[in-house]
Design a protein that fits this description.
- This protein has 16 helices and 13 strands.
- By secondary structure, the chain is α/β, with parallel strands linked by helices.
- An eight-stranded mixed sheet has the order 5-4-3-2-1-6-8-7, with helices on both faces. A five-stranded mixed sheet has the order 11-10-9-12-13, sandwiched between helices.
- Helix 1 packs across helix 3.
- The chain binds adenosine-5'-diphosphate (ADP).
Amino acid sequence: MSGLLTLNAGSSSIKFGVYLAADEPELLLLGQVENLGPVAQLMLSHPKKKTVEIGPADHVSAVQAILEAIEPVLQGHVVTGVGHRIVHGGKTFTGPVELTHQVMGQLETLVPLAPLHQPHNLAAVRAAQAAFPDAVQIGCFDTSFHQGHSFVNDAFAIPRRFYEKGVRRYGFHGLSYDYITDTLKREHPILARGRVVIAHLGNGASMCAIKNGQSIGSTMGFSALDGLPMGTRCGQLDPGVLLYLMEQGHSAEAITHILYKKSGLLGLSEISHDMRTLLASDDRRAAEAIDYYVFRIKRELGAMVAVLGGLNAVIFCGGIGENSPEIRARILDEMEFMGLSLDADANHANEHVISDGVIPVLVIPADEERVIARAVANHVMP
Ligand code: ADP
């Protein structure tokens, strides 16, 4: 059987999965290289947890370490396809695509639209092309799920020529939303045809309003900065703040650093980007950062229900969405007027269905790697 590899390369980590090709790919190994830099580690999470220090590693040497780690589990199966998570597919790529020389050229032109993510994604593709020259390389885009937004969800109210040049609301986290909507179709087909809000709450965070399986609006827009506050990203911001910072003499590079790396939960708390640390802290700033986080999510939820014209389900995913009963409870506190109420025990146990009100509230662990593996399997299977 063919082996499949998925790579999900961020600025400081590369997540990977190894599968056997099948209509529903069979998972063999899941892991990630973390802390790319002087002291990287390779961590396996499936089938057994294991951590190996691999010392200094950049994207290329991390892919090399991944190759060594996957060799024993492949047991002679040849890797015929490698799937990559790619943050930006622009206006062109509405679904998975083979990463030919020409496509890579097109994706390079999108680097200015996602300067902190796209270069790492493309570096991993080049490393995988070198390691597996005979395998087909498939790109899966975080933007694809949101293609087909209506104009009002796609445009900013600035001169129209910028829209024509690509200044649009692309929306991100599409692979996660793809996985959740697909799971809904399989397990809750009636809900899948309804009006659903998904909250992907991880280090990166966004929400998506979905009607009959189609994204009709996302909190993330042109960049992965907009919408909800995140671990270190600011979320929604009055553009006047940017003008002010520029007038104060901050360079574009300095502002980029502040908004992507020093803001969000970290910026507000001045303690940590990590929700677990903030929840455990008795510092007032940690409490205020969490208050702000919950408040913004509540606001977006209300706005999404209004534009959806109703609500049939709320779904939580991502590290915080899947694991934090306290944050979920705070988000849905005093939401009974919308039919949203939590079953305290089910919520505490992180069960699949955690509601006891009219509207189901579900926890569905996002599995972006599986979405990529399915796309690659589609390509390599006869
Ligand atoms: P990424 O977006 O990098 O994939 P994750 O989806 O793993 O990130 O989410 C990381 C976030 O999830 C961190 O803020 C972490 O503190 C939070 N998290 C993980 N487990 C818990 C938990 N039990 N309670 C609260 N937050 C949690």
